[in-house]
Amino acid sequence: MSTDPLADRYGRPARGTGPSGRPRLSTGARIAIGAALAAGVAGAAWFAWSDAQRNPVSFRDIGFSVESAEQVSVTFDVMMPPGTTAVCTITALDPSYAEVGSLDVEVGPGERDAIRVTAEVRTTQEATTGVVDHCSAGDRAGG
To answer: What pTM, to 2 d.p., does this model score?
Structure first.
């Protein structure tokens, strides 16, 4: 029998325990867990920020059009700081996701931070899609 009569009567866990009846974490343990979570979030934010600084170029696929059995047209936006040049690799894929065409496109430098590009990719057989595989920063204009 516990020292808490209500716990005995209604089958509740005794005071100082959680819903499962196990003892609650001490204040020090709660602070340590909170600090560990805060450190994890800060670490993830730092990695994301440092990656953005390393490659300030990002892209967004807008669409594609299969022009013929030998060509696909891919439209995409490239976001980068003004004055930056980027090289984007465009890939055409068949129904089994095999690469049937590829093209490197130089983008910029531009005066705005977003540039829309349409690229024509020649293919070895009919493609069913065209996508941007990746973009990376080139040299800054004038330097």
So the answer is: 0.58
